[in-house]
Amino acid sequence: MTTGDRPQKPHGAGRGSSLAQRACVALCAGVAAGCAAPPASDLGCDRACLVGLTQRYFDALGTRAPQRAGLAGGVRITENGTPVEVSSSVFGSAQPVRWHQVFADPQSGQAAAFARYDDAQGPVLYAARLKVRQRQITEVEALVNRRGAHPFFAPDALSGPRAVFDTVVPPPRQLDRTTLRFIANTYFEAIEQHSSDVAPFSDECIRIENGVRTTDNPQQNLPRSCRIGMQMFTYIPTVRDRSFPVIDVARGVVFAWAVFDMPGKVTTAVVDGQTIELPPRVREPRSMRLAEVFKIVDGQIHTIEAFIRYEPLGATTGWPRTSD
Fold first, then answer.
1. Domains in the chain, start-ordered, CATH in brackets?
2. What is the pLDDT at residue 267?
3. Phi and psi, residue 49, nearest 5°
4. Predicted confidence (pLDDT) per residue in 127-165, tens digit
5. Cα separation of 81 and 214, whole Å?
6. Buried (b) or exposed (e) across 50-70, using 16+ Cβ within 10 A?
7. What's the pLDDT tens digit per position in 214-271?
8. What distance in Å separates the CA atoms of residue 166 and residue 248, rounded to the nearest whole number?
9. Where are the alpha helices (DSSP H) in the chain?
10. Distance set, CA 53 to CA 70, 95, 256 (Å)
11. What are the pLDDT digits (tens) for 267-277?
């Protein structure tokens, strides 16, 4: 991973600053009103175009008709980090898509989506990044998640798009791209540092993983908040291959990819001063591939949703990770 993959901190947001100071700097520096807008994209596909192409892609996926998906000749596709041809991709197995949610970024010329469909093996949670050039899809980076790939898997708990990600933030409260990206990245920094003080979490923050709520959920033995839960991640020393291909300023949404490395060498964590034993599932050496979406409001992380799967330790993304 190159230096460009990790967003640079806005001025005044160094590690020595308090969380409140950094959140304030991010908010004040990034309010869209008065911030210079990035240069307009020359890729010829606005938000409506990206959303329409994504709809076309999923319509074609659900009918196994890749010729109608808007794919460019020579399109590059990966599934779980492995390059595949269209003929051997999920286009050969997917049943009609039950729902999908689109995240669009005309500035980068990319869209991303979460979706649910079934195939002969059962339910599938599917995340994808679509790169668009000249109104054709030239890249598809997909995570294909089936039962057994991770202990958390509740596709039926996901009945449709999550409204919070489609809700527009009032213009005076919108943040610029750099600030949104920086705040999303603090989540990964907080995991690496196992710290409750690195990322600006809202008090109402929730996290959902493969349909399972993993914060403030005592029924699943997951009673901790987003902030306090960071102390549990002593078993994740590295969050690598971070990428932020879709940033939606109007909605305060960032779509990210990342890989968590879990060497399996740590068995305990100190949470609020108490040492606790980590569950057996995190003691095996492996990596975890994630597609993650953040809702950021007033400089704080409000909602986190992820599609995740376990893979062998050291799993690669299949893509060069440069600054998006």
1. 3-40+164-311 (3.10.450.50), 47-161 (3.10.450.50)
2. 92
3. -65, -45
4. 999 999 999 999 999 999 999 999 999 999 999 999 999
5. 25
6. bbbbbbebbbbbbeeebeebb
7. 999 988 778 899 999 999 999 999 999 999 999 999 999 999 999 999 999 999 999 9
8. 10
9. 19-30, 47-62, 163-166, 177-193, 226-229
10. 7, 19, 20
11. 999 998 999 99
Strands 268-271 and 253-262, by their bridges, are unpaired
The residue type at 183: I
Pairwise CA distance, residues 157 & 115, whole Å? 13
Residue 35 has a pLDDT of 39
Considering only CA atoms, which of 319, 264, 266, 261 is closest in space to residue 289?
Answer: 261
Per the listing, tokens 């000749």 go with: 73
Q: At what angle do helices 19-30 and 177-193 cross, to 10 degrees?
A: 160
Task: Give the range among 29-38, 110-119, 218-227, 315-324 with minimum mean pLDDT.
Answer: 29-38
Q: What is the largest CA-CA distance in the chain?
A: 57
The tally of CA atoms less than 13 A away on the side-chain side of residue 190 is 22
The CA distance from 100 to 159, in Å, is: 10
Spatial separation of the C-alpha atoms in residues 323 and 152, rounded to whole Å: 31
